[in-house]
Amino acid sequence: MTRFTRLAHADPLDAPSPDVPPAPGLQRAGARLPVEEYSRRLWQRRWFVVAYATASNSVGYERSFLGQAWQVLTPLLNIAVYYLIFGLLLHTNRGVPNYIAFLSVGVFLFSFCQSALVAGSKAITGNIGLVRALQFPRAVLPVSTTLVSLLQLLFSLIVLVPILLISGVAPSLRWLQIVPAIALQTLFCLGLSFTVARIGSRIPDTTQLLPFVSRVWMYGSGVMYSVQVFAQGHPSWVSTVLTNNPGYVYLALARHALLGVPVTAMTWLAALAWGVGTVVLGYLYFWRGEEGYGNV
Amino acid sequence: MSEPAAETREPTVVVDDVHLTYRIVGKGKQRGGAAASLRRTLLREPLPGQGSVRAVRGVSFTAYRGEAIGLIGPNGSGKSTLLRSIAGLMAPSQGTVWTRGQASLLGVAAAMMGGMSGDQNILLGCLAIGMTPDEIIEEYDAICDFAGIGEFVHLPMNTYSSGMGARLRFAIAAARTPDILLIDEALATGDAAFRRRSEARIRKLRDEAGTVFLVSHGLGVVRESCTRAIWLENGRIVMDGPADDVVDAYQEKHDPGERTARPNARSGVASRAQEPSSV
Lengths: 296, 279
Fold this sequence. Notes:
The structure holds two protein chains of two kinds.
Chain A (H helix, E strand, L loop, with lengths): L2 H6 L18 E2 L6 H10 L1 H14 L10 H20 L9 H23 L6 H4 L8 H27 L11 H25 L3 H14 L7 H5 L4 H9 L1 H14 L5 H24 L8
Helix pairs in contact in A: 3-7, 4-5, 4-7, 5-7, 5-8, 5-9, 5-12, 7-8, 8-12, 8-13, 12-13
Chain B lengths: L10 E14 L8 H11 L7 E14 L3 E5 L6 H8 L7 E6 L3 E3 L12 H11 L4 H15 L14 H12 L6 E5 L7 H17 L2 E5 L3 H7 L2 E6 L2 E7 H12 L12 H7 L6
Parallel strand pairs in B: 3-7, 3-8, 5-6, 6-7
Antiparallel strand pairs in B: 1-2, 1-4, 8-9
């Protein structure tokens, strides 16, 4: 008798270990692919990532009267509120020339990190129907939520240009440095999304906690005040911690590019290290959890 | 069950003592706001309603190339969960599922968006099931023709009647033939003409795919289109064998009054049509 006959009797499997298929040619269903093959499949799905991100972005606005106009209105209103509170009421603008431009760059760029973080934590749980229906590398989902956040950043940059010009910033070729700065920030946000997507899929309460985390992070990143001015009169480690935190690093680069606030080569290095380090570690961390995302 | 010569039978799916447990956190809707969840997390208070459900409890069987297997059983017996673990979408908490080639569920509904037009959804759905842009361009007209929704293809999907939506979803899902086809109550959507077309398409998919699994409450459908049936109850196999035998025994237990006639029973199809489809 061959082993196939034994298989047919429903309690077949004398396979010596769970890693050895009971018959040649069989693979374990849902087995995690090696990271190279996984990445190749992810790349094959790039058009799905783009289509899914743009579709979810526009669907987010479909139930409002103003529709896509909110893409531009939301950042404008944000700036108005922050300017009212921090500029006019709390005077955190001390030591900052052209506060409205400083604040706008800070709020828009930091919102990218914030929304990548919050949306990333829901990348699996918010798409669980998709995860339980179709087989594809799950990394598609956090990449797609990060892409949506990036799209929203690009829309707010459209708002930013007139704010800069009206507030008296002269256009300059240096503005082009915003491209590598945002590219590095995107790597960082992507790594962040991978990480919180896996955590969020295991611990549903992550979604409730993250708004607190991101608010603390915002206050520590010099979004609405100058870290240099603040750090005067504090021990030097305060300044070291604040200026090396990724939230601040990417803001500093953007302010350098758009407003001419000086940065050192160290800032670019820190941005590179945070970006590449976070995306590599985050990706591997997410990939290791691949088999469990449907069981959320 | 009767056994043909062992050498000619090629196993395509081996389910080896599979258990599947759902973790349940909260009571679905319970949230209680950020402050409450922060407190819960910090104080390690147990979540209200936390627990687990054992959907599948030790199922073993082997499926062979050329078989069409119906999974039958009452609601909550673990049919759909078992199907998802064969597709590799949910990892068993114990045991292993082995497949030859990729097993795919027939369905794209989860990838589609009501606010987008039909043609945008064709693009989205086809990309979601893994087609390349070139393949989509090639298949686009065939999908539109098969769905038969005419000019509606340019309108948002939430303007469609439920039948039209189901037709479009089916047309997209059926555009690709996987090695192992898993159908979760997908038969008999839309009107009579479309049902005939979709049944023909499923037959074609079944011939092209190596092995087919069909979850259905329509016992007539299982008798008609399956060679073998597995009866599940409370996550365990009650009976596994030729479709007619298993369906007979199942009806004996659950529906003694209404035994469908063995040859060509259509009543199952009719009763399915009234339930919402899950394609």
